[in-house]
From TrEMBL:
<dbReference type="GO" id="GO:0008168">
    <property type="term" value="F:methyltransferase activity"/>
</dbReference>
<dbReference type="GO" id="GO:0032259">
    <property type="term" value="P:methylation"/>
</dbReference>
<keyword id="KW-0808">Transferase</keyword>
<dbReference type="InterPro" id="IPR041698">
    <property type="entry name" value="Methyltransf_25"/>
</dbReference>
<dbReference type="Pfam" id="PF13649">
    <property type="entry name" value="Methyltransf_25"/>
</dbReference>
<dbReference type="InterPro" id="IPR029063">
    <property type="entry name" value="SAM-dependent_MTases_sf"/>
</dbReference>
<dbReference type="InterPro" id="IPR050508">
    <property type="entry name" value="Methyltransf_Superfamily"/>
</dbReference>
<feature type="domain" description="Methyltransferase">
    <location>
        <begin position="60"/>
        <end position="160"/>
    </location>
</feature>
<protein>
    <submittedName>
        <fullName>SAM-dependent methyltransferase</fullName>
    </submittedName>
</protein>
<keyword id="KW-0489">Methyltransferase</keyword>
Length: 256
């Protein structure tokens, strides 16, 4: 699962015993060599699904990490793309990655900016037409989703989109189900015994609850199958794109 350039077991252990922010600062130089990075196939599929909805002017990659999602935004947005993350280490890697790929401010194509901020307190106001996020929602507890989605709603212009892929949960009969269940159980024990907490739960982000909270935050939500990943045995898609549209200029009240 890890390439030779990836983190050692000791480095992963040190990260897991840190806070989320400091843990990602430590992991940043080797993050792109881990299975935690969103696969290119998912990024390409999301870009393909969003292309007919665009073009967009300004895009935001929420919890951008090392900036893989900026490639998606750069192909969809005409004026600017912004990556926001609260890990300085991840942003440093993202800047270097963007510069080497020619996605620097002033280069041909949309301008690129990087902002260090918490996704639960975004420093923008109705500045974007498209917000995307990849693989970050496990770092938010279910009770934090109303506030998070309200924040995203507030930084979108009327008619703007909030889009992210969602993988179908594995069946109880599959090894992946028990692996994720075990991972979440270990993290809960770790957080009960050790401070600061490291919030990362794979099974806490449930699609039904997510759709309900997006609607409550003021979005109109559509689901699109990403056909590149096929179907499960019951005919349902393995991967969906959630496309949530801000339909008017009214921002809902802050979540309680």
């Amino acid at each position: 699962m890890f390439s030779p350039e990836g983190p050692t077991l000791r480095e992963l252990a040190v990260q897991a015993l840190s806070s989320v922010e400091h843990g990602y600062d430590l992991l940043a130089p080797k993050f792109d060599h881990t299975p935690f990075r969103t696969p290119d196939a998912v990024l390409d599929s999301v870009a393909k699904a969003l292309d007919p909805i665009g073009p967009f002017e300004d895009g935001l990659d929420l919890c951008c990490g090392t900036g893989a999602g900026l490639d998606v935004l750069a192909g969809l947005c005409r004026r600017s793309v912004t990556g926001v993350d609260f890990s300085a280490g991840m942003l440093d890697v993202a800047r270097r990655r963007a510069a080497s790929a020619g996605l620097a401010a002033g280069a041909e194509g949309p301008g690129v900016a990087w902002v260090r901020a918490d996704a639960r307190a975004l420093p923008f106001t109705a500045a974007f037409d498209l917000v995307v996020s990849f693989g970050a929602f496990g770092h938010f507890l279910p009770r934090e989703l109303p506030g998070l989605f309200t924040q995203v709603h507030s930084v979108l212009r009327p008619g703007g989109r909030f889009a992210f892929p969602v993988l179908a949960p594995p069946r109880p009969s599959s090894p992946a189900f028990w692996m994720l269940l075990g991972f979440d159980a270990v993290m809960r024990v770790r957080n009960a015994l050790w401070r600061p907490p490291f919030v990362m739960y794979y099974r806490a982000f449930r699609l039904g609850e997510v759709l309900e909270e997006l609607t409550r935050a003021g979005f109109t939500v559509d689901l699109h199958a990403l056909p590149e990943f096929g179907q499960r045995g019951d005919g349902s898609p393995r991967v969906r794109l959630v496309s949530a549209r801000r339909g008017d200029g009214v921002t809902p009240p802050p979540a309680a």
